Amino acid sequence: MVQNPQAIIEALNDYNYVADEELATALFLLLKLRKPILLEGPPGVGKTEIAAVLAAWLETDLIRLQCYEGLDLNAAVYEWNYQKQILLLKSAEANHEKMAESEIFSDKFLLKRPLLQAILHPKAPVLLIDEIDRSDEEFEAFLLELLSAFQITIPEIGTIKATHRPYVILTSNRTRELSDALKRRCLYHWIDYPDLDKEMSIVQMKLPDIESELLEQTVAFVQTLRSRKLAKTPGVSETIDWAESLMALGYRRVTAQALHQTLGCVLKTVEDISIVKKENAGLME
Amino acid sequence: MKIQAYSTASLSEAIVAFGQFCRSHGLNVGVQETQDALNAARHDVLVYRPIFKNALRAIFCTSPEEQKRYDRLFSLYWDTNPIDLQPDRKNKIAVTGTLQKKNTAALVLLGQGKSNPDEEEEAKNVSGANASERLRKTDFSKIREIDARELEILADRLFKEMALRLRRRMKNRQINGQIHLQRTIRRSLSLGGEPIKLSFKGQKPKRQRLIVLLDVSGSMDKYSFFLLRFVCALRDRFRQSEAFIFSTSLVRITHLLDTKLLNLALINLAQQADNWSSGTKIGTCLETFYDSYGKQTLNGSPVVIILSDGLDTGSPALLHSVMTKIQRKARKVIWLNPLKGMQGYTPTARGMSAALPLVDDFKSAHNLESLLELETILSNV
After folding, report:
1. Does residue B315 carry a pLDDT above 90?
2. Average pLDDT of B30-34?
């Protein structure tokens, strides 16, 4: 097992993820204290990716729960297979057999959803609860039991304790403030947009074949875009997409034409695109 | 309480005291967090200073704002050099005097220390329960600069509470539709498996559209901005919210209804509003609204809220005809007139009297309390 945060930075580097010291320390504590970690930050800075990378590095499974408005226990934790239960009851009735309740509510009929899967997993998995800010407050409240005691209560069976504590990563885009109760059960880390050097090394790592001039120009351009007030600020994943598209189209540097063709990779609203195009039309020629 | 690391005897004590120090400065650090910090300290995070700092940050903070505050607290607590502060025996009193001052200065920088007594007295006057009661009843246009911030905070809180109330109220409604098999079986357990009570599943009640038209001419802007905040708080309650402002011309500001953008937008709007002429052409503006946005927004019976004093410089006939058209398409038209809050007001202005017969609800909305009364109207649509 790792001895210090520096080891984490190096290990993640092998999996093409650039982590800074702060993030590494937070992850180090996740591994040591086994407390869930809440990652907040703007879209496209690698919050979700870290879970995948961590799972690959720890050689364990990644169990992902995507949150959305209206997510309920049936979709997140468990559900009884009602249809199958009824079929069995009916056939037992027809054959004049007796059925015990424990038989009906047994493992056979239990449909395990991500959270229950994570608890019952034979090896401590990485559990990613993605975009928790999209879920309802009720669901957030339910998570409290799971995140502090790592157990789930099913009325018909009882309380199920985790065989191995999963490494829990929660992500949020901060579209709403999460409850204090949830935050208190988690370690917290805010991932911001990377600075020029870090972003360059990220893109370089993802696209090893990129030429240095193109790399520098794309990253610098996105960095200036970020300092502007746009409807949708581009994230790191947009930078990577853009650089990749430029390479695919055979550009070796960012020209006016290249910008015109590929701006849709970086900017995702019509207003932003037209503003930036208008500004750069004069600048590039 | 110890407020510097050097005054503690052991490392554990220093960490515990640091937890207390952070708590006293507004961070949400409880026993659990302190315990986690001690636990973390056992796991080799102590070897290198930045790691130690980052580790405690991950444990103690829950938002980017708190992280900033934490950084200052950390250096204040751990970086103070004991030699600088060592009490000299010869003139002990003098030194402790300066020490006291130094601390206070640093704490004031953090925004937490004791400020001078006068300010404190004033702050007390504002934050009491009576003060908030008073603020709720104060007319928006008569609010002093000092209270404005307080009022905004209060309004934000009350609007949030209201949005939550409305959300909860919706859930208790019974809708009949398809039988919800799973829930029916689950409920039948207590009755020995006989499904006596059926559960139904149906579509969630469709949320309504909300359209707000705000008069920003002359003295109306202050009222309009509060209503805009109100609409922002209600955004989730409605399927879609649309907002327009008008004085001599109509501007669509729906995209500003994002809470994050709102404050910035209000500042910009306030600056622009001053430049606008005081004459209001309500009829023309509503007609522009009906012609250019009517198709997109006036479908599915929305709720329309118009805030204006009804002092129209255009023709009342035009206003009357366009109001008829809007009223036909809307589920409910609510007209808010802040002047109604004044004593002895009667809606005799030409524009107002032309529009009044076509309005379902005529309210004042001149202060927070009257704005909150809208809750009952909105929850019944």
Report:
1. no
2. 89
Coil/strand/helix, residue A79: strand
- Asked whether the predicted pLDDT for residue A7 surpasses 80, the reply is yes
Q: Residue B51's Cα: distance from chain center in Å? A: 37
Which residues of B make CB contacts under 8 Å with A?
28, 30, 32-33, 36, 39-40, 43-45, 47-48, 50-51, 54-55, 57-59, 61-64, 67, 181-182, 185, 255
Rounded to whole angstroms, the Cα distance separating B292 from B285 reads: 11
Q: Which residues contact residue B296 at a Cβ distance below 8 angstroms, ignoring those fewer than 6 apart?
A: none
Domains and CATH numbers, chain B: 5-109 (no CATH), 173-204 (no CATH), 209-379 (3.40.50.410)
B114 pLDDT higher than 50: no
Most confident of A40-44, A272-276, B62-66, B135-139: A40-44
B282 CA: distance to closest CA in chain A (Å): 30
Helix, strand or coil for residue B201? strand
Residues of B in contact with A29 (CB under 8 A): 40, 43, 45, 55, 58-59
Task: Note whether ipTM > 0.85 here.
Answer: no
Task: Characterise B280 by phi-psi region: left (phi > 0), alpha (psi -120 to 50), beta (else).
Answer: beta
Distance CA A36, CA B19 (A): 20
Instruction: Read off the pTM.
Output: 0.59
